[in-house]
Amino acid sequence: MVMVNADNDLVITKLKYTLNGYEQNIICLTPEMQETNALKLRQQIIGDENPKKIILYSTGHGSMLFKLLRNTILKSKNLIAVEKTHTEILGKAAIEIAKWLKDKSRIRFHLIPVCSKTFIFTDKFDNFENPLLTINRGEQLPLTKEYSTDGTKNIYVVS
């Protein structure tokens, strides 16, 4: 899924199926980070993967980057392009979600939960250079990490 916002930032969300659910990978590309060559930009967005569907949407109307992506860079039979604001499609989306919830025959999958913030555990208030334990943003949940120090019987467990 590729989203173009009003500042021409690209937010690329890739979902990969695993036995535990879908792994979600989010990449944000500001205009300065985006390649100027069409083939390189396509490679930057899709990579070496061959997605079954590409959903492209814009948070506003008339974005030149959206039109370039739709008509040239991401053009394929697998592309679904939506150039409407969230308020314009909210009603239809709510109806579709209600249909999915009522349909008991569908197989349900879930996104694997990940940590939304970085957590740093230290032994002193301002000791961020030498943390005891760090939990990075994007690590899969639930997680269990241990930390023990030499010469002490204290064991710190985060779970």
Would you mind describing this structure in some detail?
- With 159 residues, the protein is of the alpha/beta class.
- It has two domains: 2-102; 119-158, no CATH class.
- It is 23% helix and 28% strand.
- It has three helices and nine strands; from the N terminus they run βββαβαβαββββ.
- It has helices at 38-46, 64-73, 86-102, and strands at residues 2-4, 10-18, 21-29, 54-58, 79-82, 119-121, 133-135, 145-148, 155-158.
- The chain has a five-stranded mixed β-sheet with strand order 3-2-1-4-5, covered by helices on one side. A two-stranded antiparallel sheet has the order 6-7. A two-stranded antiparallel ribbon has the order 8-9.
- β4, α2 (64-73) and β5 (79-82) form a beta-alpha-beta unit.
- The longest helix has 17 residues, at 86-102.
- The radius of gyration is 21 Å and the shape is extended.
- The protein starts with a strand and ends with a strand.
- The mean pLDDT is 81.
H-E string: EEEHEHEHEEEE
Estimated helix fraction: 10-25%
With strands numbered from the N-terminus, the spatial order across the biggest sheet is 3-2-1-4-5
* Largest beta-sheet characterization: 5 strands, mixed
Alpha-carbon distance between the termini? 32 Å
What's the total number of strands? Answer: 9
- Judging from the principal axes of the Cα atoms, what is the shape? extended
Rg from alpha-carbon coordinates: 21 Å
The proportion of strand residues reads 25-35%
Total domain units = 2
Low-confidence stretches: none
- Class of secondary structure makeup: alpha/beta
Overall pLDDT metric? 81
Can you count the helices?
3
